[in-house]
Design goal:
Layout (H helix, E strand, L loop, with lengths): L3 E2 L11 E7 L7 E2 L3 E8 L2 E5 L2 E5 L4 E4 L5 E5 L1 H6 L5 E8 L6 H5 L5 H8 L4 E3 L1 H16 L3 H16 L3 E3 L12 H17 L6 H7 L4 H12 L3 H19 L4 H7 L5 H12 L3 H11 L1
Parallel strand pairs: 1-3
Antiparallel strand pairs: 2-9, 4-7, 4-9, 5-6, 5-8, 7-10, 10-11
Helix pairs in contact: 3-5, 4-5, 7-8, 9-12
Pfam family, one: HTH_18
GO molecular function, one term: sequence-specific DNA binding
Protein name: AraC family transcriptional regulator
Amino acid sequence: MKPLYRKLPSELKSSFSVRHDVMPNFGNVWHYHAELELHYTIRGEGIRFIGDNISQFAPGEIILVGEKLPHAWRCKDEYFQNNPDYNIEAIVMQFLPDCLGDKLLQLPESYLIPRLFERAKSGILVQGEAKHQVAKLMQSCVKESGLGRVINLLQILKTIAETEEWEPIVKTQTTFHQSNEADSIRINNVFNYTYTHYKEDINLEEVASIANLSVTSFCRYFKLMTRKTYYDFLIEIRISNACRLLVENKLPTEMICFECGFNNVSNFYRHFKKVMGLTPLEYKKTYLDTN
Protein backbone atom coordinates (compact mmCIF):
# COMPACT_ATOMS: atom_id res chain seq x y z
CA MET A 1 0.00 0.00 0.00
CA LYS A 2 2.43 2.59 -1.28
CA PRO A 3 2.67 5.35 -3.89
CA LEU A 4 3.15 4.25 -7.48
CA TYR A 5 6.71 3.44 -8.47
CA ARG A 6 7.40 5.05 -11.83
CA LYS A 7 10.32 3.89 -13.96
CA LEU A 8 11.30 6.93 -15.99
CA PRO A 9 12.25 6.47 -19.65
CA SER A 10 15.93 7.00 -20.34
CA GLU A 11 17.04 9.27 -23.15
CA LEU A 12 19.49 7.91 -25.69
CA LYS A 13 22.88 9.60 -25.52
CA SER A 14 21.80 11.55 -22.39
CA SER A 15 22.89 11.03 -18.80
CA PHE A 16 19.81 12.89 -17.47
CA SER A 17 16.57 14.36 -18.77
CA VAL A 18 15.34 17.95 -18.94
CA ARG A 19 12.06 18.99 -20.49
CA HIS A 20 9.86 22.07 -20.84
CA ASP A 21 6.25 21.01 -20.19
CA VAL A 22 3.26 22.98 -21.44
CA MET A 23 0.16 20.85 -20.83
CA PRO A 24 -3.31 20.86 -19.24
CA ASN A 25 -2.04 19.59 -15.86
CA PHE A 26 0.89 17.97 -14.08
CA GLY A 27 -0.89 14.63 -13.66
CA ASN A 28 -2.46 13.69 -10.34
CA VAL A 29 -0.76 10.37 -9.57
CA TRP A 30 1.17 10.27 -6.29
CA HIS A 31 4.38 8.54 -7.32
CA TYR A 32 8.11 8.20 -6.72
CA HIS A 33 11.16 7.16 -8.72
CA ALA A 34 14.86 6.44 -8.32
CA GLU A 35 15.81 9.78 -9.91
CA LEU A 36 16.03 13.13 -8.14
CA GLU A 37 13.68 15.69 -9.66
CA LEU A 38 14.17 19.45 -9.93
CA HIS A 39 10.78 21.04 -10.58
CA TYR A 40 10.39 24.69 -11.65
CA THR A 41 6.76 25.87 -11.88
CA ILE A 42 6.47 28.68 -14.43
CA ARG A 43 2.66 28.79 -14.67
CA GLY A 44 0.01 27.08 -12.55
CA GLU A 45 -1.29 27.03 -8.98
CA GLY A 46 -2.69 24.37 -6.70
CA ILE A 47 -1.65 21.91 -4.02
CA ARG A 48 1.46 19.75 -3.97
CA PHE A 49 1.89 16.53 -2.02
CA ILE A 50 5.51 15.70 -1.12
CA GLY A 51 6.12 12.98 1.44
CA ASP A 52 4.09 13.93 4.53
CA ASN A 53 3.77 17.58 3.44
CA ILE A 54 0.70 19.20 1.86
CA SER A 55 1.21 22.79 0.67
CA GLN A 56 0.16 25.31 -1.94
CA PHE A 57 2.38 25.87 -4.95
CA ALA A 58 2.49 28.93 -7.20
CA PRO A 59 4.47 30.24 -10.20
CA GLY A 60 8.17 30.72 -9.55
CA GLU A 61 8.52 27.84 -7.11
CA ILE A 62 11.59 25.59 -7.45
CA ILE A 63 11.77 22.29 -5.57
CA LEU A 64 14.36 19.53 -5.51
CA VAL A 65 12.70 16.18 -4.76
CA GLY A 66 15.06 13.46 -3.53
CA GLU A 67 15.26 9.89 -4.80
CA LYS A 68 12.24 7.72 -3.90
CA LEU A 69 10.43 10.63 -2.23
CA PRO A 70 6.69 10.41 -3.13
CA HIS A 71 5.25 13.52 -4.79
CA ALA A 72 2.41 14.91 -6.89
CA TRP A 73 1.23 18.34 -8.06
CA ARG A 74 -2.53 18.98 -8.30
CA CYS A 75 -3.67 22.13 -10.13
CA LYS A 76 -6.67 24.23 -9.13
CA ASP A 77 -9.75 22.91 -10.93
CA GLU A 78 -11.22 26.39 -11.46
CA TYR A 79 -8.49 27.21 -13.97
CA PHE A 80 -9.70 24.47 -16.29
CA GLN A 81 -13.40 24.99 -15.57
CA ASN A 82 -13.19 28.67 -16.52
CA ASN A 83 -10.78 28.20 -19.42
CA PRO A 84 -10.66 24.77 -21.11
CA ASP A 85 -7.61 25.88 -23.11
CA TYR A 86 -5.56 26.76 -20.00
CA ASN A 87 -2.16 25.08 -19.73
CA ILE A 88 0.35 24.77 -16.90
CA GLU A 89 4.03 25.32 -17.64
CA ALA A 90 7.10 23.89 -15.94
CA ILE A 91 10.70 22.87 -16.50
CA VAL A 92 11.53 19.46 -15.04
CA MET A 93 14.97 17.91 -14.69
CA GLN A 94 15.35 14.27 -13.59
CA PHE A 95 18.66 12.57 -12.89
CA LEU A 96 20.07 9.62 -10.99
CA PRO A 97 22.50 10.44 -8.15
CA ASP A 98 25.36 8.87 -10.11
CA CYS A 99 24.29 10.14 -13.55
CA LEU A 100 27.66 11.84 -14.03
CA GLY A 101 29.62 8.90 -12.65
CA ASP A 102 30.55 7.65 -9.18
CA LYS A 103 34.05 9.08 -9.46
CA LEU A 104 32.73 12.66 -9.64
CA LEU A 105 30.96 12.24 -6.29
CA GLN A 106 34.13 10.84 -4.76
CA LEU A 107 36.27 13.85 -5.67
CA PRO A 108 37.21 15.95 -2.61
CA GLU A 109 36.06 19.07 -4.50
CA SER A 110 32.58 17.53 -4.92
CA TYR A 111 31.86 16.84 -1.25
CA LEU A 112 28.86 19.21 -1.21
CA ILE A 113 26.95 17.23 -3.86
CA PRO A 114 26.45 13.99 -1.83
CA ARG A 115 25.40 16.18 1.10
CA LEU A 116 22.88 17.93 -1.15
CA PHE A 117 21.46 14.60 -2.35
CA GLU A 118 21.04 13.50 1.27
CA ARG A 119 19.20 16.73 2.16
CA ALA A 120 16.99 16.30 -0.92
CA LYS A 121 15.49 13.15 0.64
CA SER A 122 13.46 15.59 2.76
CA GLY A 123 12.69 17.80 -0.26
CA ILE A 124 14.31 21.21 -0.77
CA LEU A 125 12.41 24.44 -1.43
CA VAL A 126 14.93 26.77 -3.10
CA GLN A 127 14.52 30.44 -2.18
CA GLY A 128 15.98 33.92 -2.56
CA GLU A 129 18.70 34.78 -5.05
CA ALA A 130 19.57 31.09 -5.46
CA LYS A 131 16.07 30.49 -6.85
CA HIS A 132 16.52 33.17 -9.53
CA GLN A 133 19.92 31.78 -10.50
CA VAL A 134 18.60 28.21 -10.75
CA ALA A 135 15.59 29.35 -12.81
CA LYS A 136 17.89 30.97 -15.39
CA LEU A 137 20.15 27.92 -15.49
CA MET A 138 17.17 25.59 -15.99
CA GLN A 139 15.85 27.73 -18.85
CA SER A 140 19.30 27.65 -20.41
CA CYS A 141 19.59 23.88 -19.93
CA VAL A 142 16.44 23.27 -22.01
CA LYS A 143 18.19 24.87 -25.00
CA GLU A 144 21.61 23.31 -24.40
CA SER A 145 22.92 20.01 -25.73
CA GLY A 146 26.00 17.87 -25.23
CA LEU A 147 28.60 19.09 -22.77
CA GLY A 148 26.71 22.37 -22.27
CA ARG A 149 23.86 20.48 -20.56
CA VAL A 150 26.27 18.72 -18.22
CA ILE A 151 27.91 22.03 -17.28
CA ASN A 152 24.46 23.52 -16.63
CA LEU A 153 23.53 20.64 -14.32
CA LEU A 154 26.77 21.04 -12.38
CA GLN A 155 26.17 24.80 -12.02
CA ILE A 156 22.64 24.12 -10.76
CA LEU A 157 23.83 21.57 -8.21
CA LYS A 158 26.62 23.92 -7.10
CA THR A 159 24.16 26.81 -6.61
CA ILE A 160 21.71 24.76 -4.54
CA ALA A 161 24.47 22.99 -2.57
CA GLU A 162 26.17 26.25 -1.57
CA THR A 163 23.14 28.40 -0.77
CA GLU A 164 21.67 28.86 2.69
CA GLU A 165 18.41 30.07 1.12
CA TRP A 166 16.41 26.86 1.29
CA GLU A 167 13.85 25.05 3.44
CA PRO A 168 13.22 21.33 4.00
CA ILE A 169 9.74 20.24 2.93
CA VAL A 170 8.92 17.00 4.74
CA LYS A 171 9.08 16.31 8.46
CA THR A 172 9.81 12.58 8.18
CA GLN A 173 11.92 11.02 5.43
CA THR A 174 10.05 8.13 3.82
CA THR A 175 11.38 6.14 0.89
CA PHE A 176 9.70 3.21 -0.86
CA HIS A 177 10.43 0.21 -3.00
CA GLN A 178 8.26 -0.96 -5.89
CA SER A 179 4.58 -1.23 -5.05
CA ASN A 180 1.28 -2.51 -6.37
CA GLU A 181 -0.22 -0.21 -9.02
CA ALA A 182 -3.80 -1.02 -7.96
CA ASP A 183 -3.06 0.29 -4.44
CA SER A 184 -1.56 3.45 -5.95
CA ILE A 185 -4.67 4.06 -8.05
CA ARG A 186 -6.83 3.56 -4.96
CA ILE A 187 -5.01 6.15 -2.85
CA ASN A 188 -4.94 8.62 -5.74
CA ASN A 189 -8.70 8.27 -6.12
CA VAL A 190 -9.01 9.19 -2.43
CA PHE A 191 -6.65 12.16 -2.87
CA ASN A 192 -8.54 13.45 -5.91
CA TYR A 193 -11.95 13.03 -4.27
CA THR A 194 -10.79 14.87 -1.16
CA TYR A 195 -9.24 17.73 -3.11
CA THR A 196 -12.45 18.15 -5.13
CA HIS A 197 -14.86 17.94 -2.17
CA TYR A 198 -12.86 19.37 0.78
CA LYS A 199 -15.33 22.27 1.14
CA GLU A 200 -18.16 19.81 1.85
CA ASP A 201 -18.93 17.61 4.85
CA ILE A 202 -17.06 14.39 4.07
CA ASN A 203 -17.74 11.33 6.23
CA LEU A 204 -15.65 8.20 6.46
CA GLU A 205 -18.36 6.02 4.93
CA GLU A 206 -18.36 7.87 1.61
CA VAL A 207 -14.59 8.17 1.30
CA ALA A 208 -14.14 4.50 2.27
CA SER A 209 -16.54 3.59 -0.54
CA ILE A 210 -14.27 5.46 -2.99
CA ALA A 211 -11.49 3.06 -1.93
CA ASN A 212 -13.85 0.04 -2.01
CA LEU A 213 -13.05 -0.72 1.62
CA SER A 214 -14.95 -0.92 4.89
CA VAL A 215 -14.50 2.06 7.20
CA THR A 216 -12.26 0.08 9.56
CA SER A 217 -10.10 -1.27 6.72
CA PHE A 218 -9.91 2.16 5.09
CA CYS A 219 -8.72 3.87 8.29
CA ARG A 220 -6.01 1.24 8.73
CA TYR A 221 -5.05 1.44 5.03
CA PHE A 222 -4.86 5.26 4.96
CA LYS A 223 -2.76 5.46 8.14
CA LEU A 224 -0.36 2.85 6.76
CA MET A 225 -0.11 4.69 3.43
CA THR A 226 0.28 8.28 4.64
CA ARG A 227 1.40 8.05 8.29
CA LYS A 228 -1.63 10.14 9.29
CA THR A 229 -5.36 9.66 9.80
CA TYR A 230 -7.77 10.57 7.02
CA TYR A 231 -9.23 13.42 9.08
CA ASP A 232 -5.74 14.83 9.70
CA PHE A 233 -5.18 14.71 5.93
CA LEU A 234 -8.52 16.45 5.26
CA ILE A 235 -7.72 19.17 7.82
CA GLU A 236 -4.34 19.80 6.16
CA ILE A 237 -6.00 20.17 2.74
CA ARG A 238 -8.47 22.68 4.20
CA ILE A 239 -5.75 24.61 6.05
CA SER A 240 -3.58 24.73 2.92
CA ASN A 241 -6.43 26.33 0.98
CA ALA A 242 -7.11 28.70 3.88
CA CYS A 243 -3.47 29.84 3.70
CA ARG A 244 -3.90 30.65 0.02
CA LEU A 245 -7.05 32.69 0.68
CA LEU A 246 -5.44 34.51 3.61
CA VAL A 247 -2.46 35.70 1.56
CA GLU A 248 -4.75 36.71 -1.33
CA ASN A 249 -6.31 39.05 1.29
CA LYS A 250 -9.67 39.33 -0.49
CA LEU A 251 -11.98 37.70 2.09
CA PRO A 252 -12.42 38.23 5.85
CA THR A 253 -11.09 35.42 8.02
CA GLU A 254 -14.55 34.32 9.14
CA MET A 255 -15.63 33.85 5.53
CA ILE A 256 -12.45 31.90 4.72
CA CYS A 257 -13.34 29.53 7.55
CA PHE A 258 -16.57 28.41 5.86
CA GLU A 259 -15.10 28.64 2.34
CA CYS A 260 -12.56 25.96 3.30
CA GLY A 261 -15.03 23.49 4.81
CA PHE A 262 -14.91 24.32 8.54
CA ASN A 263 -18.28 24.54 10.23
CA ASN A 264 -17.41 27.11 12.91
CA VAL A 265 -14.78 29.79 13.47
CA SER A 266 -13.39 28.52 16.78
CA ASN A 267 -12.84 25.06 15.25
CA PHE A 268 -11.04 26.69 12.30
CA TYR A 269 -8.77 28.76 14.57
CA ARG A 270 -7.90 25.72 16.70
CA HIS A 271 -6.96 23.55 13.72
CA PHE A 272 -5.08 26.38 11.98
CA LYS A 273 -2.94 27.05 15.07
CA LYS A 274 -2.21 23.33 15.46
CA VAL A 275 -1.10 22.87 11.82
CA MET A 276 0.63 26.21 11.15
CA GLY A 277 1.82 27.21 14.63
CA LEU A 278 0.18 30.64 14.18
CA THR A 279 -3.33 32.03 14.26
CA PRO A 280 -4.83 32.92 10.84
CA LEU A 281 -4.32 36.64 11.51
CA GLU A 282 -0.71 36.12 12.62
CA TYR A 283 -0.06 34.04 9.50
CA LYS A 284 -1.53 36.68 7.18
CA LYS A 285 0.35 39.52 8.90
CA THR A 286 3.64 37.60 8.69
CA TYR A 287 3.15 36.91 4.98
CA LEU A 288 2.06 40.45 4.09
CA ASP A 289 4.92 42.00 6.11
CA THR A 290 7.42 39.71 4.38
CA ASN A 291 6.17 40.64 0.95
